[in-house]
Specification:
Radius of gyration: 12 Å
Number of strands: 5
CATH class: Alpha Beta
CATH superfamily: CO dehydrogenase flavoprotein, C-terminal domain
Order of helices and strands: EEEEHHEH
Number of domains: 1
Shape: globular
Number of helices: 3
Strand content: 25-35%
Helix content: 25-40%
Oligomer: single chain
Structural class: alpha+beta
CATH architecture: 2-Layer Sandwich
Distance between the termini: 8 Å
Amino acid sequence: MYATKKVEGGKLINIEVSDGDVKITGDFFLHPEESISEIEKILEENIDNHYLIIEQIDDFISSNDIQLIGVSSSDIFDVFKEALK
């Protein structure tokens, strides 16, 4: 399953969900870059329970001083939900 979205400001988010694995790509920025794997893990762990995903991503970002540039946790969640359809 795959979804893509161009968010306000022109940045692109792509999310692929396959056999319980989640892969996030796009032309947005995340610092530090390796944090993307932790966000993917949050999504993988909540494929069947979407209610707390944004809170968990926001908690992870704020507690680890991570910068999302060009997209928001809500944008990631929206694309993730679309990929699961």
